[in-house]
Structures are given as structure tokens and as C-alpha cells.
Amino acid sequence: MMGMKWLLSHRYQGDEMNEPLIDKHGRIHNYLRVSLIEKCNLRCRYCMPENPDWTPKEELCTTDELLTLIDRFIELGVVKVRLTGGEPLVRKDFNTILEHLAGRDVELSMTTNGILIDRHIRNLKDHGLLKINVSLDTLIPERFAMITRRTGFEKVIKNIKLLVDEGFEVKVNVVVMRNMNEDELIDFVRWTKDLPIIIRFIEFMPFDGNRWDDDKMVPLAEMKERIGEEFDFDKLTDGPHDTTKHYQVPGFAGQFGIISSMTEHFCGSCNRIRLLANGAMKNCLFSTDETDLLTPLRNGEDPEPIIRQVILEKKPSHAGRFNIAKQENRSMVTIGG
Ligand code: SAM
Ligand code: SF4
Questions:
Q1: Confidence class for position 327, pLDDT limits 50, 70, 90
Q2: CA of 17 to the centre of ligand 1 (A)
């Protein structure tokens, strides 16, 4: 029971000094994105396959296992934790997880579809989770129902406004797809005239079961050109690890940005680690490899050496859009973006 001893003695104490998680290319990894749950209350066509292959419950992390793994990453230098999913707010122990992480010295953020925000807003605010990305791909109610295969448009719009009124830092993620919503780029930018949010247009990425096709992907250059036909806009300065290129129409309260994972990747400054609901770790969104941390944890082993090795071995960049499109990868709903 050596392992169990390790587990008991290694609950986070906050005073350990560690070498940073660094790869062979000198990139320090201090940002953990945790997919809390595979399931979701929406069924977005670009994310959720028609017949998802859910992981059996016994192979998913319990609350305690998930928190132990997250704590271990924090001990190893993680300073930012983003909660995602599936839909993170659907996880029944969400409040326990939030409460636990609020006691850690990390910046908390979340990516959500926004449906359940009003029920959680007080708790999120009280626990300092103030940076929220809400996914909304259209400003047309009927289209929302078509893309997400569910209702809820009005709720999401209301909840975005509620977040802004309550002082949260709000970004809205829009996956841009040809013949689906690319005709709404201008309307989304116009939305930022009075609303202090950042709209982030995301190039459609290929994942298992989402019927990705190169023709459906609208590249950054085309998005900029289309927006430029209506608005003059300025390029803003981006942060060192930003995946988004930021722009603003002068005088507008909000901004817009473009995430060009497909046509202009940002791998050189990547600091991201992904942990999935089944305890698997991924060192890149597009990596087809996953490393199981849950089994070693259940065997009472310290996952640190495995974590360090996975980071060390990270590739310099993903291999370009055509190669990505040919690879098999999980469905996005189980990775979390
Ligand atoms: N349910 C939450 C939500 O929708 O925000 C969190 C999970 S969702 C998988 C995380 C992000 O991934 C969302 O912003 C979503 O738009 C994005 N996403 C999903 N599938 C995608 C795809 N094929 N290409 C680009 N982004 C995608
Ligand atoms: Fe659910 Fe988010 Fe995927 Fe839509 S994008 S199906 S809301 S996990």
C-alpha cells in the first residue's frame, strides 16, 4: 500500500517547489483545461456525433480522483484552470469542484453553452470564477435549434447579458461554418457596438463524427475580408499565449477575435495541457495520443513522472490542416476545446 501512502501524504499543501512542466521545445505548460463531463444538454452538430460512444461510468473520474489529479497539476506549476466539457454545468458535483478549486492559488475560467448560467451565477461569482466563454453560433433562434438540435436560444442570450451585468469577463465563441452561419459575421461584430464582450470566431475544426469538410471551413483571411466590407477595424495587441487574434471597430464597446487553429496555428507559444473526464491527459488538442492517469492513480502511484514525460514529448506543432483532417481524434464533446 505504498501508493495509498503517497496519495494520503500528497494532498496539496501549497508549499512544494517544483521544476516547471517544460517540453523539448522550451515551452512551459501552466494552463490546464479540464473536461469535467462527456455529456451535454445540447447536441451541436459540429461537436457531438449522432451516436456518441460514452465512456462507462466506472471508467470516469470520481470527484475525489478528478480533484487529486487537478491538484497534482497545480503542484507542478499550473496557474490557470479552465473548466469545460461536454457541458461543465451539467456535472452534478460541479459546486464541490468549484468550491475546492476556489481554495487553490489558480485563475479559474469556464467554457459553457450558457443554458444553466442563471442557476449558477451567484455561486460562480462568490467563488471567483469570473472569466466565462459562452458558445453561441448564431443570432437567429431557428438556426440555434438547427445547429444545437435543442431549444434554449433565448436563455443563452439572456444569460450572456446577465453575465455582463454582473461584471463577468465574457467571451462568445462562434464556430464559423460555410452555408451555416458565415453570413452572420457582420451581425455578431455589430453586437459588440454596445455590449462589452469579445466575440471569437473559430475556424471549424475536424473531430470524430462532426462531418468536417475543408469546404465548410471559413479561413481567417476570408473572415477578415468579409467583416472589412462592412467595418473598418483595428488590430489589437494579443497576449503572449493568446490563441485569438484580436480586433476592434473604433468606438465599439466590445471586440472581436479570430481563432485560426486550421490556417495559422499558434503552437509556438502553446502552454496548454488537457485533462479529460476519464482521467486521460492530452498534450495537444489535435494529438491522437492520450495518456491514462486514472489507472496509475487508482493503483496508488504518483502520476508526476508520466505527466512530465507526456509534456516533454509534445510535438512542436500540429501537422497542418490536411493532415489533421485525415487523423482520427475523439469527438470534441469529450475533449472540451
Ligand atoms: N459545452 C461547452 C460549450 O459549448 O462551450 C464547453 C465544451 S465545447 C466542446 C468547447 C468549445 O469547443 C465550444 O466553444 C465549441 O464551440 C468548440 N467546438 C466544438 N466543436 C468544434 C469544432 N469542430 N471546431 C471548432 N470548435 C469547436
Ligand atoms: Fe455541448 Fe458544447 Fe459540444 Fe455544443 S459545443 S454539443 S454545447 S459540448
A1: low
A2: 35
